[in-house]
Description:
The protein has helices at 12-15, 18-44, 50-62, 68-97, 101-105, 116-145, 152-166, 173-193, 197-224. By secondary structure, the chain is an all-alpha fold.
Amino acid sequence: MEKDPNEVKIKASLVWSRIGFYQQILLWIITAAIPFFIYLFYSINPLKYTSLSNWLSRVGDIITLRRFLPDYVIGLFIGAFLSLFFLLMEWLISRIKGELPKERLSHQDELIPKTSLQRRWAFAINLSASIMEEILFRGYLFMALINLWNHWLWAALLLSAIFAFFHTNIQQMSATVWIFITSLVLCYFTVTRRSLVIPWGIHFSVNLVNLFVFPKVGEYFSHENK
């Protein structure tokens, strides 16, 4: 099935630019507004909406900077390890299916930053987005779901399915599986460390590897097969 040439695509020049930066500002405003309006709603009738107070408390407990530097470094290393593991899995899948590794590593090439300016924007925007997405997903949503079951894993599975859906890669289904697994790891560290710091590091590291390392590996395989 041929792609529609008139189909609107998200380009690196659009995402990694001032437009992407302004989008981050807007999303941060929304992220900050959510607990504010939840608290206002709770304050109308505290006795009736004690669950909202408990949710705010759980969110506040994990948005902490204690052990920030060592935990963030640990998160960066875990994220790099996960990315390399997924890279190995993509290579194995390509070998099993008889595909060129380049074909599996070149998905979403249109989002790879091409210029030094785009790369700087990509670094800054991903630093912001990794923090914000962890607050939204592992903070707000996970802390809302976690009380619905006796074990956090059930909430993590549901959240990871949602997280993978929002990050679906239409060119490679395997990418959705890697995102799902990554989300489970992020949920695990959120619960065990009672902090979002390691998940922040993992998320940022995975994004950087996908944007700056995978393309280089894809180029290597491309040259190797010429």
